[in-house]
Structures are given as structure tokens and as C-alpha cells.
Amino acid sequence: MIVWLASYPRSGNTFFRALLAQCAGYETHTVYDNRDLPDLTHGLLGQPEHPASLQDLGASPDVHFVKTHEYPVDAAPAIYLVRDGRDAVVSYAHFSVAFSGRRNPAWRLATKLFPSALFRIALWWRIHMDRLNWGAHVRKWTGRPAPAKTVVIRYRDLIQDPIAQLQQAFAALDLPVKLGDRPIPTFEELHARWPAFFRRGQVGAHRDEMPKRMLAAFEAQNADELRRFGYL
Questions:
Q1: Positive/negative CA dihedral, 197, 200, 204, 207
Q2: pLDDT tens digit string along 179-189?
Q3: Among candidates 80, 86, 55, 52, which has minimal Cα distance to 67?
Q4: Whole-angstrom distance, CA of residue 15 vs CA of residue 214
Q5: What is the DSSP string of the chain?
Q6: What is the tens place of the pLDDT at every residue in 131-164?
Q7: Which has the closest alpha carbon to 191: 86, 9, 44, 77?
Q8: What is the rounded distance in angstroms from the CA atom of residue 156 to the CA atom of residue 34?
Q9: Are 40 and 100 in contact (CB under 8 A)?
Q10: 8 A C-beta contact, residue 80 and residue 153
Q11: For residue 40, which of 19, 14, 4 has the smallest C-alpha distance?
Q12: What whole-number distance in Å separates Cα of residue 25 and Cα of residue 137?
């Protein structure tokens, strides 16, 4: 059985996977290839080194949590993590600059010489051109018709009381949870170990990073979803 851990990128998915691994003892999976981040995926997230196929995970009687940023493709139960879209796209733009061309020496040099320009280009792309639109992503995951069941967790609630959000999600999906005694990883610890991946993590970070014209464009595009979750 698959339980999707779904979110628009940079919305707390990795932190929730860390909670599952460190505090509840669950292995987690992903639809993406993160083999170049072994310390993060295997050490922190409890991701198996040789994962089974999605077909095998879906046919298994056991519960398997699988990370995805894609739009929904089936009616499997899901935990959907939603973050203020303005913060999410800002973080996603920074992530794109830091990771998209990290194996290319010319790109690494450009990120050192022109970080602000590359960030603005990436942010504009995420707002206007990306196939993943924040508002559409929120609508499609939170509006899945029955029998699909989706538990929604807001990012700001997750970082304020992660264990309570984990327990509520499990209860809503009728899943057993047995918390261990391992401490919850703090953002400061995560940032110290993986600073490019866990960059800032603050609620409202867009206020001093998002240019006014891009902010206005994003809010106009996504006003309904921003209001629905209390962000406007």
C-alpha cells in the first residue's frame, strides 16, 4: 500500500520524511533519483538503498510512504503538505540555482558571480512558465474526489508542533503510529549539515526576497488558494 507524501517543491516534504524515519521508524521512498545525496536520503530519511518499484509497493500489504511533487495520478491515500506559495516558490528558485547545474563547472562559477540575477530568472520561471503551478497543485491534491483520501498539513503547523501533526495525519488515515525516543531534528541541525538543501525554512521569508512585481503576479494568479489557507 502506498501513502503519498505529496507537496509542491520546498514545502516541508523532506522534513516530514525525517520525522517518519527518526521518530516513527518508517522507511520512506521517492519517485525521484536522489542517489547523489546518500548522506541525506539514507542517513536522515530512512530511504532504502535498493527500493522496490511503485507497482510492488502498491501491491504490498505494508504501508509505504512515497514522496512526490507531481500532480495526483491515482486514488491512493495521501498526506499533502502545503506551504505559503510565495515562500515555496522563493525557496524553489534558490534550490534550482543551487542544484540544477551543480555538476557543471561553468554553472557553479555563474552562481558565484551572478547569484541575484540567476535567482530572479529562476523565480520568474517558477511563477510564469513551470509545468508545476502552485495553485493548480494545491487544487488538484486537496480536491481529489472520493474514494481518495487526502490529509492536509500546513507547513507552519508542521514546524510549530511536528509530532502533533504526524499523529493527527496517522489518525486521519487510520494508520498505526508508535513513536520512538529519538529526538526531532532541529532546523538548525539540518541547516548546519546540509545548508544548500535546508536553506532558511522560515514562514514569511518571501517578504524580503520576492520582487514586488513578481509578488503581485503570483498573488493575482493564486489568490483563491492563498486565501483558502489563510495566507492572504
A1: negative
A2: 887 888 888 88
A3: 80
A4: 27
A5: -EEEEEESSSSSHHHHHHHHHHHH---EEESS--TT-HIIIIIIS---SSPPPHHHHHHSSS-EEEEE-SPP-S---EEEEE--HHHHHHHHHHHHHHHTTTT-HHHHHHHHH-HHHHHHHHHHHHHHT-SS-HHHHHHHHHTPPTT--EEEEEHHHHHH-HHHHHHHHHHHTT------SPPPPPHHHHHHH-TTTS----TTGGGGTS-HHHHHHHHHHTHHHHHHTT--
A6: 999 999 999 999 999 999 999 999 999 999 999 9
A7: 44
A8: 26
A9: no
A10: yes
A11: 14
A12: 29
CA–CA distance, 13 with 205 (Å, rounded to integer): 18
pTM (predicted TM-score): 0.93
User: What type of residue is 84?
Assistant: D
Instruction: Report pLDDT for 112.
Output: 81
Span 187-205, pLDDT tens digits = 888 888 888 888 888 899 9
Backbone angles phi, psi at 76, to 5 degrees: -65, 150
Cα 154 to Cα 100, 106, 108, 219: the distances in Å are 27, 38, 34, 18
Return the closest-CA partner of residue 20 out of 165, 150, 154, 195: 165
Own/partner contacts of 187-192, CB < 8 Å, gap of 24 or more, are 187/15, 187/159, 190/15, 190/18, 190/44
pLDDT by residue (tens digit) across 10-31?
Answer: 999 999 999 999 889 888 999 9
